[in-house]
Amino acid sequence: MRCAIIADIHANLQALEAVVADAREYGCEEFHVLGDVVGYNANPSECVEIVRTLPGVCVLGNHDSAVAGLEPLDHFSPSAISVLEWTRASLTDEQRDWLAALRPTRQIRTATLVHATLDSPTSWGYIRTSSAAEMSLACQRTPLCFFGHTHVPGIFVQGGREILLDEGVQLPPDQKFFINAGSVGQPRDGDWRASYLIHDEESAGLWLRRVEYNVQTARQAVLDAGLPVKLGDRLLIGL
Ligand code: ZN
Fold first, then answer.
1. Pairing relation of β-strands 111-114 and 105-108?
2. What distance lies between CA 20 and its chain's CA centroid?
3. How far is the CA of 90 from the centre of ligand 1 (A)?
4. What stretch of H or E contains 200?
5. Domain layout of the chain by residue ranges
6. Residue 35 in contact with residue 11, Cβ under 8 Å?
7. pLDDT digits (tens, 9 = 90+) for 174-197
8. What's the gap in Å between 219 CA and the centre of ligand 1?
9. What pLDDT, in 10s, does the model give residues 197-233?
C-alpha cells in the first residue's frame, strides 16, 4: 500500500488539488490527513469536502478544533481569530460537525497520526527539535508516527537524533520515527511549494514531495475574501 501523508492544508484549495493529483500520479491509494484542514486561507468549505471524500482518515488540528467550537479562540493571535471567525461562518453546520467529530489521534496499521504531540495531543505544543520530540517518542506504540503543526518537514528518532528528510529515505526496521510531513497550504521552511509525504509500506520507503501549484490564485483568493493581506503574501515565500 502506498499512502499520501498530508498536513496543514489550511483552506488552500489550489495547493490541495495539486498535492492530490501528484499523489495519485505516484500511485497513492490512501490519503491520511494530519489536521488543520481549515484556517488562514480562503477555501475552507471546498477543502473540507475534498478531505471528507478522500480514501483515508483525518485527525483533529487546533484550527479545526477552534472553528468547530471545541475550544475558545483566546490563545490565537488577533489576525488568526478574525480568520477563524470568517471560516466558521463559511462552513455549513454539517461541515462544522464533521470537524468537531475528528479524533485527536488515529492508528493506520503501523503508523499513528496526530497533529501536534503524542504525549498531549490537544495541548497543541510545537515539536521543532529532537529533544522536544522525546516525550512523543516515549508515548509512541507504533514504528511510525506522522505529525504536523510546525509546517516544517523532518524526521526525529529516539535518542536525540534527527534524520534529514531530503527526497527519499529508507526507514530501517526496529526503530521508532516521529515524522513531520510539512504543510500543504502554508509551508514555513522558506520553500513556497506544497509539502507532503509518500509512504510505501512494502518497501518502508518515505519520500518528501514538494509540489508547485498556482500560488498567485491562492493569494488572490485570500485578498478577495477580505482576509489579512499578509496571509496571502506569506504563501509566495513559504514563511
Ligand atoms: Zn497548522
1. antiparallel
2. 13
3. 18
4. strand 194-200
5. 2-236
6. no
7. 889 999 999 999 999 999 999 999
8. 17
9. 999 999 999 999 999 999 999 999 999 999 999 999 9
Ligand 1 centre to CA of 201 (Å) is 26
Taking only the tens place, the pLDDT of each residue in 16-56 is 999 999 999 999 999 999 999 999 999 999 999 999 999 99
**Secondary structure letter of residue 214 according to DSSP:** -
- For residue 148, the SS3 value is coil
Other Cβ atoms within 10 Å of 123 Cβ, number: 9
**DSSP state at residue 150:** S
Q: Could you say which DSSP state residue 171 is in?
A: P
Distance from the CA of 16 to the center of ligand 1, in angstroms? 14
Does domain 2-236 fall under CATH 3.60.21.10? My reply is yes
Half-sphere exposure of 46 (CA within 13 A, CB side): 12
User: Residue 129 C-alpha to ligand 1 middle, in angstroms?
Assistant: 17
pTM (predicted TM-score):
0.96
Dihedral-angle region of residue 132 (phi above 0 means left; psi in -120 to 50 means alpha; beta otherwise) = alpha
- Alpha-carbon distance of 149 to 117, in angstroms, equals 9
Contacts 24+ apart (CB under 8 A), 49-52: 49/95, 50/13, 50/16, 50/17, 50/20, 51/9, 51/16, 52/98
Distance 63 CA to ligand 1 centre (A): 7
Count H helices and E strands in the chain, helices first: 8, 11
Scanning the structure block, which residue is given the C-alpha cell 477555501?
43
Q: What is the CA(175)–ligand 1 centre distance, in A?
A: 27
Alpha carbon of 150 to ligand 1 centroid (Å): 7
